[in-house]
Amino acid sequence: MNTGKLVRLNRIFAHPSGRLCSVAVDHFAGYDAGLPPGLQHMAKTLEALVAGGPDAVTMHRGIAATFWQPYAGRVPLILQSSMIRTDDSAMSQAATPEDAVRLGADAFAVVGFMRGPTEAHYLRVIAESVREAARFEMPVICHIYPRTYAGGKVDISFAPEDIAWAAHCAVECGVDVVKVPYCGDVKAYAQIVADCPVRLVAAGGPKTKDLRGALALMAAVRAAGAAGATIGRNIWGFDRIADSVRAFKAVLHDGLAADEALKRAGL
């Protein structure tokens, strides 16, 4: 790995724990679910997120160009490039690795869905992103999700063997960090982590009914040996966003249980 890429990755994984506790606000067309309250007032949400001290924040280029100036250089920026949906009703790229360089980002994120008739399309996009990012020594973080097809409905698969397959596909394309869903089983996830030759971080998962549930999920992710997690709705989807970030940091960095993390964060 050349120095430029290493510098950027070291900024993202700068915490002494070696793990990542990052936040994503890249939810819009890809989720096709309207505008959640936590994203409706983005300036206020970003202010609260930064106050909580995340290791990085993932966002699309328009949000970065419009709202990120007050925090430039204070928190690593990960530029999200993909505008896609699980059912392939959206399959577009909104940014390039060169955009990431121009915005001062420390990594370029690309999303892919595995299984199904469009799997090869996503692999091609991921591989092309890796190739272009190499020109700038820009790390590529791949958010990759396996799919299931049943009864005419497309969903994310949480089966360990499917997640392992998705992670392997991303690795084959040459990405630097893989982000995959948590499968719900610590032992199985630990095997997925052990078999992945690059850093593997967990997706924050579907919205939980309460913050404690989301923290418990992240405690399991940490126990499985993952290199951290990127959380979205389970941070900005609750009140007291800054304190929620602090609670997740207590779990992922300090190894606290959910109840202990809530107490430390004053929640």
Supply database-style keywords:
267 residues; alpha/beta; TIM Barrel; two-stranded antiparallel ribbon
How would you describe this protein?
This protein is α/β, with parallel strands linked by helices. The protein has one domain: Alpha-Beta Barrel (TIM Barrel), CATH 3.20.20.70. Helices cover 42% and strands 20% of the residues. It has 12 helices and 11 strands. It has helices at residues 3-12, 37-40, 42-52, 61-67, 97-102, 119-134, 160-172, 186-195, 211-223, 233-236, 241-252, 258-264, and strands at 20-24, 57-59, 77-80, 82-84, 91-93, 107-114, 140-150, 153-156, 177-180, 199-203, 228-231. The strands form 2 sheets. It has an 8-stranded parallel β-barrel, surrounded by 6 helices. β9 (177-180), α8 (186-195) and β10 (199-203) form a beta-alpha-beta unit. α3 runs parallel beside α11, α9 packs parallel to α11 (241-252) and α11 (241-252) crosses α12. The N and C termini lie far apart (41 Å).
Quick structural summary:
The protein has about 270 residues and is an alpha/beta fold. The chain is about 40% helix and about 20% strand. It has a single domain, classed as Aldolase class I (TIM Barrel, Alpha-Beta Barrel).
Q: Based on the coordinates given, report the CATH architecture.
A: Alpha-Beta Barrel
What would you report as the Rg, rounded to the nearest angstrom? 17 Å
Level-1 CATH class name: Alpha Beta
CATH topology: TIM Barrel
Strand content: 15-25%
Within CATH, the superfamily carries the name Aldolase class I
Percent range of helical residues: 40-55%
For the biggest β-sheet, the strand order reads 1-2-3-6-7-9-10-11
Mean pLDDT: 95
Structure summary, number of beta strands: 11
- Number of helical stretches of at least 4 residues: 12
